[in-house]
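Repro:
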Amino acid sequence: MRPVIGVIPLFDEEKDSIWMVPGYMDGIRSAGGLPLILPLKADEEMVAQVCGLCGGFLFTGGHDVDPALYGEEKGPFCGPQNGDRDVLEKAVFAYALEKDLPVFGICRGIQLINALCGGTLYQDIPREYEAEEKAEHHMKPPYDLPCHRVEILPDTPLFHLLGRGELAVNSYHHQAVKELAPSLRPMAVSEDGLTEALYMPGKRFIQAVQWHPEFCFRTDEAARKLFESFVEACKTV
């Protein structure tokens, strides 16, 4: 039986509509999971009920994380937030931690997990992050091609999964992990020194990447393995 995996929904303010990038759903399905889009608005009882159906959770990309979650004021170059998503993800993440259920974060997902665990974010990389040579973090389409490289740190789950110390990745974000939360550890670092992947030691599977495997898992083995390892962890719950 396929494990049910709760997927955080995306929201379009202009259309007042919940939507989803197909690659999130297809990546889970191709790896043997059954994706279920979670309700954007749910009270504590509803969150507990729907989470009880799931063996793991995918935290998707999307809106900027509300700086209030990491104790800061919103700066002039921080993008739009969605309060309903922040509330939902905070509740789902707390549930996952309590039950030791797998969580996989992508793009906003890595930022959100870091913020919820006590870390901070760069609200806008071009204006807040200094590096001698900056990598391309906000690529133009097509999004299934690599635009910079990351160093995979030794003795981490990502290194053991891929068996290599470097990876070419795609990238589409303007925010990033600043101070890493105390409970988290880095798994990969970009050419210009930003945290590109992280995990939480001591948990079954709390992992996240800054790049976008949902756009390239059909042709990229590393991206496919990310979904497969996540879904496999959900099967063992």
